[in-house]
Design a protein that fits this description.
alpha/beta; seven-stranded mixed sheet; four-stranded mixed sheet; 17 strands; globular; binds pyridoxal-5'-phosphate; Aminotrans_3_PPA_site; transferase; aminotransferase; EC 2.6.1.11
Length: 402
C-alpha cells in the first residue's frame, strides 16, 4: 500500500467538514514538531489545547506501552484498575466524589447536561428543566452540546433542536438574573471562554452566579474541557476562583493527546445516573486511563503549576512586546498556558492570517474566533522553545505587516 498521501488526498477521501493546512505533521518531541518535508515547528498550539506535556513524553509513552502489553479493552461490563485508580486520584484532588469517564469533551458535557436534567427531574419534578449557558460559549459538537453552546452558526441547518436552553451574556449579571428561575436545572459556564475568544470570567460575576444557582436549586456546571488539567496553573481553574461547581467536565489536556474525557460530581448528584441511564462503550478504557494517570502524575505538582505560571508570564510579555512593536494587538489575555492575543482594530477578522504567517516561519499557534490568536503551549515548554517560538512568530508578523 502506498503512503504517498498529501493534503490533496484529504479532499478526495474525507468529509469536507475540516479545512486542514498543507502541513502534514509526522513526528513530535517536546514542544517541537516535524512535517512531511522535514520542516520543524515550535508548537504553541498543542493540537487544540491538548498536548499539555508536549509530544512523545516519556512517562506517557511508557504508561501507554505498559498498558498495551496488558489489556486494551473490556467494556463497562467489567471495571478496570487504571479507571479505578484515575477516578480515585481525581476525587482526591478535587471537590468531586464520583467520576464518569467519556472519550471527549463533548461527551463529558453530554453526560453533564443529561445528569443535570435527570437530577432535577428526580428531585424537583419534570418542570425544572431549563439549562442556562452563555453567548459565545462552546461545549462540543453533539446536537445537545451545540445547542447549549452560544454560537448560532453551529446549530443553523440542524433543526429541529433540543429545547429548554437559554443564553445569557457572559460577565453580565443582569442578563443572567433575567433568565434564572426555579425552572432552571443547570447553569453551564467555561471559567475562561476558549473558542469564544479567551475571555476570562469576572470573579464577582461567577460568585453571584453561584449564589443565584443556590437560591434556585440549580446545579452549576463548569466546563473545564479546555481550562482543566493544569492548563491555567491550577489542576482546575475553579480552584483559584473561590467558587466550587456541582459538576465539572474535563478532557483535552486530561489525556495529553490520547482521547479521554470525564464528568466529575458529588455523590448526591451522581445518584441520579442509576444503572442503565447513561453509558459509553469506550468510556474509562484502560489505555486512556493509564495515559491520563501519567499526565496527572506529571502535572499535579506545585512545581509544575509554578512553572506554568512562570512560562506563561514570559510568553505573555513576549506577545505584548510584539503587539506594541507592530501595533497588531490591543490586549493579551487569558491565564497560564491559555493565552489570547486580541487583534487591534486594523487587524480584526484576520486571525487566520497570523496563523499562516506563523506556519510559514516555523511556529504553530491557533485562532479563537476571527479576532484572537490563541496560544496553548505545553506546561513543560522550555525557555529556549519560548524564545525561538516568539522570534519566529515575530518574523511572521513583520512579513504580514510589511
Ligand atoms: C470548553 C470546551 N468544551 C467542550 C469542547 C468539546 O470537546 P471535544 O472536541 O473533545 O468534544 C471543547 C473543544 O474545543 C471546549 O473548548
Amino acid at each position: 500500500m502506498s503512503d504517498n498521501y498529501t493534503r490533496a488526498t484529504f479532499d478526495e477521501v474525507m468529509v469536507p467538514n475540516y479545512n486542514p493546512s498543507e502541513i502534514l505533521p509526522e513526528r513530535g518531541e517536546g514542544s517541537r514538531v516535524w512535517d512531511q518535508n522535514g520542516n520543524e515547528y515550535v508548537d504553541f498550539a498543542g493540537g487544540i489545547a491538548v498536548s499539555i506535556l508536549g509530544h512523545n513524553h516519556p512517562g506517557m509513552v511508557k504508561a501507554l506501552k505498559d498498558q498495551a502489553d496488558k489489556i486494551w479493552h473490556l467494556s463497562n461490563v467489567f471495571t478496570n484498575k487504571p479507571a479505578l485508580k484515575l477516578a480515585d486520584e481525581l476525587t482526591k484532588a478535587t471537590f468531586a466524589d464520583k467520576v464518569f469517564f467519556a472519550n471527549s469533551g463533548g461527551e463529558a458535557n453530554e453526560a453533564a447536561f443529561k445528569l443535570a436534567r435527570r437530577y432535577a427531574h428526580d428531585n424537583y419534578g419534570a418542570e425544572k428543566s431549563d439549562i442556562i449557558s452563555f453567548a459565545k460559549s462552546f461545549h462540543g459538537r453533539t446536537l445537545f452540546t451545540v445547542c447549549v453552546g452560544g454560537q448560532p452558526k453551529y446549530t443553523e441547518g440542524f433543526e429541529p433542536l433540543p429545547g429548554g436552553i437559554l443564553h445569557a451574556e457572559y460577565n453580565n449579571i443582569e442578563s443572567f438574573k433575567a433568565l434564572i428561575s426555579d425552572k432552571t436545572c443547570a447553569v453551564v459556564m467555561e471559567p475562561i471562554q476558549g473558542e469564544g475568544g479567551i475571555i476570562p470570567a469576572d470573579p464577582e460575576f461567577v460568585k453571584e452566579v453561584r449564589e443565584l444557582c443556590d437560591k434556585h436549586n440549580a446545579l452549576l456546571v463548569f466546563d473545564e474541557v479546555q481550562t482543566g488539567f493544569g492548563r491555567t496553573g491550577d489542576l482546575y481553574a475553579y480552584m483559584s476562583m473561590g467558587v466550587t461547581p456541582d459538576i465539572l467536565t474535563t478532557a483535552k489536556s486530561m489525556g495529553g493527546g490520547f482521547p479521554i474525557g470525564a464528568m466529575l460530581t458529588t455523590t448526591k448528584i451522581a445518584a441520579s445516573l442509576v444503572p442503565g441511564t447513561h453509558g459509553s462503550t469506550y468510556g474509562g478504557n484502560p489505555l486512556g486511563c493509564a495515559v491520563s494517570l501519567a499526565v496527572l502524575e506529571a502535572i499535579n505538582t506545585p512545581e509544575m503549576m509554578t512553572q506554568v505560571k512562570e512560562q506563561s508570564a514570559k510568553i505573555k510579555s513576549g506577545l505584548e512586546a510584539i503587539g506594541e512593536k507592530y501595533g497588531v494587538f490591543s490586549e493579551v489575555r487569558g491565564k497560564g498556558m491559555l493565552l489570547g492575543a486580541v487583534l487591534s482594530d486594523e487587524w480584526k477578522g484576520k486571525a487566520r492570517k497570523f496563523l499562516e504567517a506563523g506556519w510559514a516561519n516555523g511556529v504553530m499557534c491557533l485562532v479563537a474566533g476571527a479576532d484572537v490568536v490563541r496560544f496553548a503551549p505545553a506546561a513543560n515548554i522550555t525557555d529556549a522553545d519560548i524564545e525561538e517560538g516568539l522570534a519566529r512568530f515575530e518574523k511572521g508578523i513583520a512579513e504580514l505587516v510589511g
